[in-house]
Amino acid sequence: MQKVIVSLCLSVAVQLGAFAEVPDTSIRAPGMLVGSVGAGDLHLLLDDMDAHLTVTGVNDRQAPYVFAISKDGTPFAIYTACANPDGTDCRGLEFLAGIDSGRSTEQVSRINQAYAAVSVYKSDPETVHISRYIILDHGVTWANLLENAAVFEVLCAHVTEDLLEQGPEAAEGSAR
Prior knowledge:
- The chain has 176 residues and is an alpha+beta fold.
- The chain has one domain: Yope Regulator, Chain: A (2-Layer Sandwich).
- 39% of the residues lie in helices and 29% in strands.
- It is built from 5 helices and 8 strands, in the order H-E-H-E-E-E-E-H-E-E-E-H-H.
- A 6-stranded antiparallel β-sheet has the order 2-3-4-5-7-6. The protein has a two-stranded antiparallel ribbon with strand order 1-8.
- Strand 3 and strand 4 form a beta hairpin.
- The protein is globular.
């Protein structure tokens, strides 16, 4: 009799297990702690940012990256920094946008000093980069990662406005 009851209980348990909810790996809870990211995380991050993915890949060290266009139309990239040469244990993210601008290095340096939360620098005579780096050591919440992305987007808009602004220094530089 006990064998029948045990068998019946196991049968019911297995059937009930089939109805158990499988966790959805296509979303991240706001409080979820993120200590390392992979390509899937970058895609989810873009989804949560309402950004449009344009390119995804890995560099020569197998570290994942994505190129995207923000909901406001700004092209940007997210690069990972990984501890291992096989693209694993990626504990750093860099949000990076490139803006066409002929502003001088001195003008860009002054703009950079106005924004502590991003780095603004010249990469060539006609391009200015806006960068925000996030360190994931010991983890940050998914909500914090999204907030960092939002700060990057807002500051990109402000820096772009500053770069396009035609103040006396820009007019002086263009008259030469």
